[in-house]
Description:
Layout: H1 8-21, H2 44-51, H3 55-62, H4 71-80, H5 85-94, H6 111-120, E1 125-129, E2 134-137, H7 139-144, H8 158-163, H9 175-192, H10 197-209, H11 211-217, E3 227-234, E4 238-247, E5 255-262, H12 265-275
Antiparallel strand pairs: 1-2, 1-5, 3-4, 4-5
Helix pairs in contact: 2-3, 2-4, 4-5, 5-9, 9-11, 10-11
Amino acid sequence: MTSPTIDPARELAAFLRTRRERLDPRDAGLSVRRQARRTPGLRREEVAELAGISIDYLVRLEQARPLRPSVDVVEALARALRLAPDERTYLYDLTQQRPRTTAEPRTTAAAPLTRLLADLSPLPAMLMNHRYDILAWNPEMTKLLIDFEALPPQQRNSMWLCLIHPEIREYYTDPERVAREGIAYLRAAWAAYPEDQVLNELITQCVTRNERFARLWAERDVKTNGRGHKVIRHPDAGDIAVQFEVLMPLQDPDQRLMICRAADDDSQAAMDRLLTR
């Protein structure tokens, strides 16, 4: 596979359309005549007026013309479309207006971070890159999820495991929410690294092999929050509610350190039983 999964110009066009169509005209201070509106959300001319750009320019953006909006135009569109902070960052990435790193993304764990994983025991922890490839882990994370060492290297990816692996995808009590959030994280990563061919191939594989991924990917949700809550239905320890934190080291910003801890006393007891097996 040699072609990118997504064309940035087409993605920008689709993103602008979906964000325009979700807006309620009343939230933008516009009068609403229901009988005159055949499509949801705001019209192109309304967004163009709110952003202070020409309707022709907005039309060309939504037609995926090879344009590169200026920083001022990007900011004006973000305001007009009432984008959330993560969506605003995504828009800047799509238009290549956010400063990019020239360093090659790392595919191996930084040695100090590997040592930190051991220091974090008994908290389950693992290290990932921007693709969510799992680069290193401590024994506790292996017991909580799966023996990563036994997996082929190409399957050591948290998104692949959550969506495609026959056992792990059944671990979560709310798989729809886990998938939705993970895909939103992955979309933000793709916008930051659009030329990463390995990442593009991962997305293509998930789109073609998983109906849920394809459906949620098309919704274009974007999220970069590194804190959350999941309930794991562990085959040996029962339900374990887990709170997780994802940290990005300043020295290695391409890498992400995920640390898990039990969310309540019952989950802590279940985790203790699991880790002492």
